[in-house]
Amino acid sequence: MVKWIHSQDLKEIPFLLVLLVETAAVGSVLAAPQHWLRAVATMTIGLVAAGLFRLLLSDVQSGLLRVRRRSFDVACYWTFAGLALAFALRLSER
Fold first, then answer.
1. Is 60 exposed, middle or buried (0-12, 13-18, 19+ CB in 10 A)?
2. In a domain, 82, yes or no
3. For labeling, which of 25, 55, 57, 78 is most exposed (least CB within 10 Å)?
4. pTM confidence score
5. Residue 60 has pLDDT above 60, yes or no
6. Rg (alpha carbons) of the chain, rounded to whole number
């Protein structure tokens, strides 16, 4: 007998995808510290993806990406992404 997978069973998949992207960014900066800007860009992509998942998925499907209200979560994810990228670009100019 095949057990059907419900959307609630897969609710942590978006969080795991974001975690995978962030882990890859940290791993890349550990492997090649001279390419730290690439790692920051990868982390920014992860934060943007987290905001996008939170915006498009329901509260149940968002899993661990859900912290507070949807609008607050999306604003925080995208604000941190913008600040991280702006800070990295500002540092790379020096």
1. exposed
2. yes
3. 55
4. 0.84
5. yes
6. 16
CA distance 74 to 94: 31
Number of domains forming the structure of the chain: 1
DSSP secondary structure code for residue 64 in this structure: G
Q: Is 38 part of any domain?
A: yes
Cα separation, 72 vs 84, in Å, equals 18
Q: What pLDDT score was predicted for residue 11?
A: 82
Q: What is the pLDDT of residue 43?
A: 94
Q: How far is CA 47 from the centre of its chain?
A: 3
Contact 87, 79 (CB under 8 A): no
**Residue in 51, 25, 46, 49 with CA at minimum distance from that of residue 37:** 25
